[in-house]
Amino acid sequence: MSATLWQRRICYFLLAFAGLLCLRVFFLIYNDPSSPVSAGDTTMAFLRGLRFDLATVPLILLPGMIAAFTGMLVALVLTRKPGMKRTAIRWSIGLETSIHLLGSAFLTGLGLSSAYNYRFNGRHLGWEFSAYMTDLPMLARSSLDQSLVFSLLLILVVVLLIGLAFWLPIRLDRKIEVKPGREILHISVWILLFLVIGRGGFQTSPIRTADALVTGNAYLDQLSLNGIFTVSRDLGDRDQFRPVVDREVAVDVVRTMLDGSDAFISQEFPLLRYMEPRQLGDSPFSTRLAGAGQKPGTTVPGRPNIVLLILESGS
Questions:
Q1: pLDDT tens per residue, range 118-142
Q2: Three-state SS for 281?
Q3: Which of 86, 121, 235, 259 is spaced 20 to 30 A from 281 at the CA atom?
Q4: Residue 34 Cα distances to 209, 292, 294, angstroms
Q5: Cβ–Cβ under 8 Å, residues 184 and 73
Q6: Looking at the predicted structure, is the pLDDT value of residue 295 above 60?
Q7: Phi-psi region for residue 281, left (φ > 0), alpha (ψ -120 to 50) or beta?
Q8: CB contact at 8 A, 116 and 110
Q9: Which of 8-17, 119-128, 289-298 has the lowest mean pLDDT?
């Protein structure tokens, strides 16, 4: 049975990898490049994406592997209680498969939605996915209105995977003896393998979304990626969400700006605001003195106050 479970996990790995390839094939078929690209460039972009697919596989399989590892560990502790040991093993095998399929249902929906997002925003989903989750009902209605075929495909795939998550574990053979110690060793090898491929292999820094941006063509660069990878990397990068000032201070500053008589300076551009030049002081929003940027013989900063408003997406 140990060999069977080992082979089964190889099948899980190959199926997860094949599923990620299918997501990028869907991206290739569903979206069109803004400018013509050659078949050779498209093929190379698709091949470059293999390492990003490999780095994504652990996100799909690692939760189930950890659950199986925990269950086998419990079974090993219950060696002197055969009945409870068999129950722990059965639950471990079934739970591993269920978690794989349930996780795949969610992540497949994410991957398809990300490919769909490219058509409107020119990129895969990223950190904004966390905000989209709060507006999921509204987004679902919008998706049904704009692309009924895509929405039905998404629902069908997700429902199928969820159904398999509850049906398949029941069909698994649970009568053959399993050695928990050997399974713990096998799963440990898989976890170590996932830690390596999850960071892109043996390299100095983990693989990033920016590593795919090599051609200067948005379509080809995004073809190398998948939405599961981009969302996980964006949400896992804590540095870009680190607040510069306290939330309360930032809210007070914005409210003061909006309450001013000259806050709205253009009806054509409603997001455009006027902000008073920052003054020297200790406030988080004040200008701080810097020797190199200071005008000679004065305490006035030598650089002007420039505020940039960057609107990433208008969707």
A1: 988 888 988 888 777 776 677 677 7
A2: coil
A3: 259
A4: 21, 45, 46
A5: yes
A6: no
A7: left
A8: no
A9: 289-298
